[in-house]
Amino acid sequence: MTTLTINCRFPHDGVLERHDPDQPLILRRHPHNQRISNAELTVDNLTLASKKRRRTQSLVLRGTVTGPLGTVDSILKLDLTGEHREAMLKGLEVYNSKAGSLQSDVLPLLYGCFEAEVGSTVVTCLAMEYCGEPVKDLLSAPHSFRQDLLLAVLDFHKLGKTHGDLYEDNILDCDGHPVLIDLKFAEDHKCVINMKIVTGAIAPTVEEYGCPELYELILEQLGVWKSATIGFCSQMFRKDGITCPEDLTKNMPAHFNEERQEIEKQAILVFEEILEERRLTYGTEQVLPGQRRVDYVRGAHIA
Q1: How far apart are CA 190 and CA 211, in angstroms?
Q2: DSSP label at 18?
Q3: Which of 137, 190, 278, 300 has the most CB atoms within 10 Å of its CB?
Q4: Is 265 exposed, middle or buried (0-12, 13-18, 19+ CB in 10 A)?
Q5: 3-129 falls under which CATH superfamily?
Q6: Which domain of life is it from (predicted)?
């Protein structure tokens, strides 16, 4: 049976109170490792992972793993209490599914899930390759990174899974390439996409777009679409209801009257921006009530 042997002390005291820190901790391969080859692995040089990598209920460590492929920089995610074992095994299930074929591309390469009994506690460990640090700010990430992220999530969906927890801490920047981690909320999924993503277009509804997870990523995390509403002079307007600049100013609160001339100039500029968004969204500046978008095509790329 494959084992994972941790030869070094844990980075801080009290991690495993019932384990002699001067003795190696030997964990055995979990029987559900369907896609993982048999190999003896050893771990050395453990340190605490970065703070962003440690925003989790499990202990996340960085170290080196030595096996058939040599010595590689790696991440160990450990449950030391048994409270989060099911969540970690849920992640293993994803690797055992068709989505496991995305390892070393969309997902980190998983070396395996290992367990050991320490006293009355079952310690569970997921060992995987190190693929960089969590992205700091998706909105300011390069266009190519955001494009690749959408394609990565789409590839994940095509193989029948949603991630379930797509936010910056779970998206790694691996030399400019996005990698998804923390799969405990992944669910079976049949992805439906009804339209091409056009940068700067007015945001559709989730029903118009199709896939809820991609919709939330595009709208909330990437800021690709423009809002369907706009605020002007302390009022909110739906953009599809604005037919001329005067629609923005005709019911303007009285306390803005002294600045009316300047506000009317601003209204013209805002209306021109709305027209440009309509051109991107519908292919025309004139939008009739209930008109559908002209760009209903399959795809998940940013134009």
Answers
A1: 9
A2: T
A3: 300
A4: exposed
A5: Phosphorylase Kinase; domain 1 (3.30.200.20)
A6: Eukaryota
Cβ partners under 8 Å of residue 38, min gap 6: 1, 2, 29
Determine which helix (DSSP H) or strand (DSSP E) holds 236, and give its type and residue range.
Answer: strand 235-238
Tokens of 186: 């992944």
Neighbouring CB atoms inside 10 A of 296's CB total 12
Confidence of residue 46 (pLDDT cuts 50, 70, 90): confident
pLDDT tens per residue across span 253-290: 888 887 888 999 999 999 999 888 888 777 655 444 34
DSSP β-ladder status, 110-118 and 25-29: antiparallel
d(CA 171, CA 138): 9
- Integer Cα distance of 130 and 172 in angstroms: 10
Q: Three-state DSSP class for 101? A: helix
Q: Give 211's strand partners.
A: none
pTM: 0.79
Extract the tokens encoding 240. Answer: 């599809």
Percent of the chain with pLDDT over 90: 46
What's the token pair of residue 185? 């909320």
Q: Which residue has the tokens 């604005």?
A: 242
Measured between alpha carbons, how far is residue 208 from residues 171, 193, 237, 241, 269 in Å?
Answer: 26, 9, 20, 18, 28
Give the pairing type, strands 41-48 and 59-67.
Answer: antiparallel
- Name the H helices within 3-121: 85-96
Angle formed at CA 245 by CA 241 and CA 248, multiple of 5 degrees: 65
How distant is the alpha carbon of residue 168 from its chain centre?
Answer: 6
Name the pairing type of β-strands 3-6 and 41-48: parallel
Q: What is the mean pLDDT of residues 235-260?
A: 87
